[in-house]
Design brief:
Layout: H1 2-5, H2 9-35, H3 50-77, H4 87-113, H5 116-145, H6 152-179, H7 186-196, E1 204-213, E2 216-225, H8 231-248, E3 252-261
Parallel strand pairs: 2-3
Antiparallel strand pairs: 1-2
Helix pairs in contact: 2-3, 2-5, 2-6, 3-5, 3-6, 4-5, 5-6
């Protein structure tokens, strides 16, 4: 309403982008609720994969809003219109502050929970702050230079749409990697190997595969034990290792330990 009555399409564009925030946040909320459901018969690894799917939907909202903003901005650039009203700057100032606070709060929670969809929603807030800042600059230029610079407001909205599209890619890429089980967890692998060597009976570790589902990490680990142990003893060590890993790394979900026998050296070697 402020954009309409204040003759600022940049503010209207910002309102469109903010409106998509509402729907995307609802999607994130539903996704987080569903992904936290425990494993069941049909979903032995849990329901975490709904998280990156939710992220894709949020990205879809971002791309849609950016496209609408860009299209309308281009139309308005070539259309004569009145200068924006000065009071729109005060509204934008309040919006920028609020959106930046929202970004920081949600991003902090996304780091704590390792949630990709929450991170996407945080960046949605940041993109709002950027579009609002662009609108602020555009309106300021139009008001300062006066007649003939009305389109500065529209150019600001067009710039904002480009930033939203770029940000959409930054959000989409990690979520796609999560769906495709891309390996980007070297630090966690090192933690797992270090902890494993502290477990009595573990000589070394070999392969360690990690895939993320929701806010949990599923681990397949090959552990080397004394080759002369009985199957029962090796099984007990594997369980001890699994329990230790899940105790010290609560972010782990399903942990599968494959026991490998140590190859004893031949006499004379």
């Amino acid at each position: 309403m402020a954009g309409f009555f204040g003759n600022s399409y940049a503010l209207i564009a910002d309102a469109i982008e903010s409106t998509t925030d509402i729907f995307s946040s609802i999607l994130v909320l539903i996704g987080l609720k569903y992904s936290s459901k425990p494993p069941d018969k049909n979903h032995p690894y849990g329901h975490g994969r709904i998280e990156p799917l939710t992220t894709f939907l949020v990205v879809g909202f971002l791309i849609t809003s950016a496209t609408i903003i860009a299209y309308e901005s281009i139309l308005h650039i070539g259309t004569p219109h009145d200068l924006p009203e000065p009071y729109t700057l005060f509204i934008l100032g309040a919006i920028i502050l609020w959106k930046e606070i929202s970004y920081r709060l949600v991003l902090k929670k996304s780091v704590e929970t390792k949630s990709s969809s929450l991170r996407a929603d945080a960046w949605h807030h940041r993109s709002d702050a950027i579009t609002s800042m662009a609108a602020f600059v555009g309106i300021s230029i139009a008001l300062y230079f006066g007649k003939g610079y009305e389109s500065a407001d529209d150019w600001a909205a067009l710039f904002a749409s480009g930033f939203i599209l770029y940000n959409s890619y930054l959000i989409f890429r990690p979520a796609l990697g999560e769906i495709l089980d891309e390996h980007v967890y070297d630090d966690l692998v090192e933690e797992i190997r270090t902890i494993a060597l502290q477990v009595n009976g573990i000589i070394a570790t070999e392969k360690c595969f990690i895939r993320k589902t929701g806010m949990k990490y599923q681990v397949d680990l090959h552990a080397i034990v004394d080759g002369l142990l009985t199957v029962k003893e090796g099984h007990a060590i594997a369980h001890r290792l699994k329990d230790t890993l899940r105790e010290q790394l609560p972010q782990l979900g399903h942990v599968l330990i494959h026991v490998e026998p140590n190859k004893p050296e031949r006499p004379g070697q």
